[in-house]
Amino acid sequence: MFVEINLALVSLIAAGGGGLLSVDQGLAFWTTLTFLLLLLLLKKYAWKPILEALKQRELAIKESLEKAEKAKEEAEKILSQNQANLAKAEEEAKKIIEQSRLYAENLKQQILNESKAQAKKMIDDATSEIERKNIAALDELKNQIAQIAIDAASKIIKENLDSQKNQKLVQDYLNEISKN
Amino acid sequence: MDSLVVKKSLVDSLQASHSENDSGWILHHVMDGNYLDFSPFFKLYLPKIELLGFDISITRHVIFMWLAAILMFIVFTSVARSYKKSLIPKGSSNFWEVFILFVRDEIAKPTIGKGYEIFLPYLLTAFFFILFGNFLGLIPFSATFTSNIAVTATLATLSFIMIQFGGIKNHGFVGYFKGLVPHGVPIFLLPIMAIVEFLGLFTKPFALAIRLFANMTAGHIVIYALISLIFVMKSYLISPVSIGMALFIYSLEVLVALLQAYIFTMLSSLFIGMAVHQDH
């Protein structure tokens, strides 16, 4: 049954000269001509420029991507370099500051010592000066006291003793005291 | 003997009923004809041409083939021109680029591999020729020239030529036919394998032709058959059903139109690839 239906269908489709499965030579001829002409024309005027353009575009995209990648890498390199430079500069600055601090400390110490020494010297000088002045003043005082004593004594004794003789007497007496 | 007579009578009766019941209009619509069918309005008859005894009349399918060819030429030269202006695609170029890249990257490149560029123009032209033909066939009052066995057979023949060209170009004439038989076949199998492989050369494009023809014909026949349900049942009530189903088949046809163009190109490319790389 199946075979019979099959056979019937085939004969229906391929019936006579104008069946569905009969190859029309004229159409085949036109198809060949049309297709080949289309192939040649499109190959020249469409496929070649289109495929070329697509390839070019792909290449351009690839290139620009690579370029961008390269630029990024370079920027990163520069950034890291900058960072390294910055760190180095900071370290150097720190070192300089440390050095100057040390120098200042030394200077301070030195100045302090110097001024201390100077002050001490000044104090010493002043002390010795004061001592000297004291001695001088004491001498002066001694002289004046002696003078006053002589004046007083000479006033008291007056006539019988002239001042020159008495002064010598007192001086001798004083010398005798300081010798002792 | 008896059964043969029965068969013959069955065939006869089928053929007779085919013309009597007037369901032949389906085949009439699907098949080629020497007029453009704008029924029920009018029919435009086309000239008959004969060359050296061959009938090369301009038929319905020839007209739509030319229409597809002209459309293709206009579309793709304009795409090429838009690329000439700038490499950045604009407007419809974007749309066509998708298909071109698809044929290049998904069909030709993986199946043929190195040296696929030579076959690309053929594959692209075949793909779009079939695609345009399939879609033209979906327009009312038009005809599907890709559902004609003569057209598909011609296309398959061209594919066959491309396959052999690819094989011979890569392996030389003798090397190609020697390489048809795979290595390591036992000696006593060699004659059989040679015949099988040689027949295989022709069955591949034959299958290509039949596949495209059958797919593009079947959908249209089913649509017409569904529409004719209205007349067979002699009732308007069936029309929503048959039109709904016809619409469904029509949408399926849109898919099939794309798919068959893809399959024809894909298989052509695959066979070219097989001929180019015989070792696997």
Describe the structure.
The complex is a heterodimer of chains A (180) and B (280). Chain A has 180 residues and is mostly helical. Chain A has three helices and no strands. Chain A has helices spanning 2-13, 25-157, 163-179. In chain A, helix 2 (25-157) crosses helix 3 (163-179). Chain A starts with a helix and ends with a helix. In chain B, strands 1-2 form a two-stranded antiparallel sheet. At the A-B interface, helix 1 and helix 2 of A face helix 1, strand 4, helix 3, helix 4 and helix 5 of B.
Cα-atom Rg of chain B, whole angstroms? 23 Å
Strands in their spatial order, largest beta sheet of chain B: 1-2
- Biggest interface found: A-B, 41 and 53 residues
Note the total helix count of chain A.
3
Helix share, percent of chain B: over 70%
Note the run of SSEs of chain B as H and E: HHEEEEHHHHHHH
| Mean of pLDDT of chain A | 83
Q: Structural class given helices, strands, pairing of chain B?
A: mainly alpha
Uncertain stretches of chain B: 13-20
CA(first)-CA(last) distance of chain A: 176 Å
Strand content of chain A: under 5%
Q: Tell me the structural class of chain A.
A: mainly alpha
**Major sheet description of chain A:** none
Short description:
The complex is a heterodimer of chains A (180) and B (280). Chain A is mainly α and 180 residues long.
